[in-house]
Amino acid sequence: MVHSANQIAQFFASYPHDEAVAGVADHIQKFWEKRMRQQLHDYIERGGGGLHELALEAAKRLG
Amino acid sequence: MPVIKEIDYGTPLRVAETLVTLEIDGKAVTVPAGTSVMRAAVDAGVQVPKLCATDNMEAFGSCRLCLVEVEGRRGTPASCTTLAEPGMRVKTQSPKLAKLRRGVMELYISDHPLDCLTCAANGDCELQDMAGVVGLREVRYGYDGANHLKAEKDESNPYFTFDPAKCIVCSRCVRACEEVQGTFALTIESRGFESKVAAGNHNFLDSECVSCGACVQACPTATLVEKSVIEKGQAEHSVVTTCAYCGVGCAFKAEMQGDEVVRMVPYKDGKANHGHSCVKGRFAWGYATHKDRITKPMIREKITDPWREVTWEQAIGRAASEFKRIQAKYGQDSVGGISSSRCTNEETYLVQKLIRAAFGNNNTDTCARVCHSPTGYGLKTTFGTSAGTQNFDSVEQADVIMVIGANPTDAHPVFASQMKKRLREGARLIVVDPRQIDLVKMPHVEAQYHLPLRPGTNVAVINAISHVIVTEGLVDETFVKERCDVQAFENWRKFIAEERNSPETLAPITGVPAADVRAAARMYATGGNGAIYYGLGVTEHSQGSTMVMGMANLAMATGNLGRPGVGVNPLRGQNNVQGACDMGSFPHEFTGYRHVSDEPVRKTFEQDWGVALRGDPGLRIPNMLDAAVEGTFKGLYVQGEDIAQSDPNTKHVTAGLRAMECVVVQDLFLNETAMYAHVFLPGSSFLEKDGTFTNAERRISPVRKAMAPMGGMADWEITVALSNALGYPMHYKHASEIMDEIARLTPTFAGVSFARLDELGSIQWPCNEKAPEGTPVMHIGGFARGKGKFMITEFVATDERTTGRFPLILTTGRILSQYNVGAQTRRTDNNIWHHEDVLEIHPFDAENRGIRDGDLVAIASRAGETTLRAEVTERIQPGVVYTTFHHPVTGANVVTTEFSDWATNCPEYKVTAVEVRLAMKMSEWQSHYLETRKQTTQIEHGAGAKQ
Description:
The complex is a heterodimer. Chain A is mainly alpha-helical. Chain A contains four helices and no strands. In chain B, helix 9 (345-359) crosses helix 26 and helix 13 packs parallel to helix 19 (544-557). Chain B is globular, with a radius of gyration of 29 Å. Chain B has five domains: 19-118, Ubiquitin-like (UB roll); 140-289, 2-Layer Sandwich (Alpha-Beta Plaits); 298-371 and 577-764, Rossmann fold (3-Layer(aba) Sandwich); 373-570, Dimethylsulfoxide Reductase, domain 2; 808-935, Barwin-like endoglucanases, CATH 2.40.40.20. The chains are: A mainly alpha, B alpha/beta.
């Protein structure tokens, strides 16, 4: 899950910061099932170590 | 319907602005300039006798039967090689012509066995027909002289025989092999009386022949004839349908005796194949009635129990009650389903409908997940719709063809023949592939540039090509300005022009010489119509979607979109990959690629289906398996797919399946996934049902029932029964009603119906008010999304890295004679060409490991280990090994890993770090597999049905 989130973040990292965060958030929202989103949320709750900063920000935006 | 016999016009159709009017047997006829007198005669309703002429190859003028008289000209020219001219007056019948033709026929027959009554071609023999047409009544020469009547028959090919005693040396077979198939396996050996058709290396089987059947189809006698016809005789009726193999979607006539197939003959009016075929569609249909077919529903409590045959009601009832029990216990989202690209549009549509409406979640996925899902994502993002841009015929107008990560001669052979024809006419070729695929160099085809990149570096190569185009001023600025999002283009231009994307900087990563990349880029950008064709070598990577977008960027930057001859064209692996995707089989979207969160769209489905639908995406196949291992996903309905063989990291897949409480498999055979199933529902082959397939060019083609379903139900009927048992009634009486619903709910299918398909033969979507007869080429004048969108495609190396422990890269692929997991082709005589998967390894790597050709070797990755035979070959570059996944016991996917495309989770089949070593015995996994297979596939015949 962390690997997948980081891959998405790596793709959008080429874009300006806000656009990139929005891109990652939009992708996760559109393609990740709620269990996966919950896992990401839980992982961040536990510290979120190793998560790409764009993925971290995007996940927080998704709430 | 009686056996369909298409009109043979004798010579090919010509297209010309100038028209020519002439008179044939007193009838005026107007034809395009360049048309033969023979073809013009057919247009005038006159059949000129012929033997060596047929309309899918150029005139040859050798049989001397089609002679005519032309007013004001001397002699009797051959009508096949004589072109129609204005004012020409032609006579096809006269006493002189009759005498000449009779004389010619007399000579042919003087060296031909007179066994018509017992001949396999009796009733389907042009020589016999022509003897009748010319009124041959005697053969004055007798049979005492030298002849070929005792010539030895070649029966080496499993599907057809070659009997030189019956050959009239018309060269139709040789020309078909050259002009239609493009293989050049046949020739006319020797001269004069000794002339004979010959396949290299002594016989057909050992020759270069690819068994496409073009020679058999072309033969006007019984020289080349199908063994099935020899065995069964002539068909009494035929059904036009669509092949169930690759994404080319060839139209075939299923020639039948009652409900038994005699032979499959490519249909000349098929718009994807124009009467051509490959070994799979033409000959490998025997699986449909193979003894391994399961025709009775079965159930069992545990996967270690033997299967018990039960009634349909019992099996459907068990599946439904289990799914309901699981949902009640573990929640609504604890079940899901997978459909297959081997099934029809109507079937895949119903599976996703059942899941969304009856299960009440969006846990629906399809096998395109593991092949072309990045195509959907990439092309939708850049162009606005998830499909290839062209029709196949577009290649006939291409000037520069770029084949990336595809092997058309093996995986899409009929389209490959069309492409080779264009290449022989002078189009130039760039191949981007780690392997030296056949197209790189074969008879009369040679790539101008082969860019043998390292696996996993596609994006670096496409960026380098685009870098050259941008920095050398080769961008089609007008196209970009008029057709694309200019701001996105400027961002991309800035990114791609950076030195880090230059061929020189990237060469150490890609392994491709910078000069070749530059030259190929210039050729693509400036060589006229540039067309990109790609396959799974593009999509099955961690950057699969990025690469699709990279190709779309390249095509947009050079203006190679929106007209014939150009485009970005995915070569879909299976017959209905495009269709399965169109049908809303992915968990995040409805039919026509509309996201489930789109409320107005969702409402239309809710109103039509009469049920509330979820607006959040469901699980993809790998997510389902992960969730199963984690304990939150417990039930799966699998229609026609075999994830236990085809999906990556087999151990993880089977662990997921084992963790489920109810796996329902609907298939022709007890496949690998069925080893872990609790309910088996016998599926129906493409010959046993009505429906449609959609090929790689968005062509929706009819699948027509030629025989009754062996299990009693078509697959769509099984889904209906399951849905009804689950409490969500479906009321379809015929597959056409399902298509009507699809058309009602999908704007791009609005004009599609079975009646319209009968009328037009096939339809390329979008088909609606704007395009009532379909859309051969997309994005003419504007993209589906409005402005084309350039995306930034940063190269990111895969995390799957070679190490000291795993120093080689494994890449996987397909072979001509086998198809996907092999469930169909392994149950045919195609095994004669490929009875086991082998590991291709470069001589350098082989020698370093003490491996010789044919040795048993172990291949290990961090995911697992298996064994197979080595094939030492320079087709593959040093450091890379290659295999196929057609045979389950090989377990190629035991070795592949869980890494996948960032956007779609399409597995990274093409890059796995491995080590290879000599082996003495099969791997532990293989031994375990064979034992498990034995344990889990036992059947107690009739046991349950008696209860």
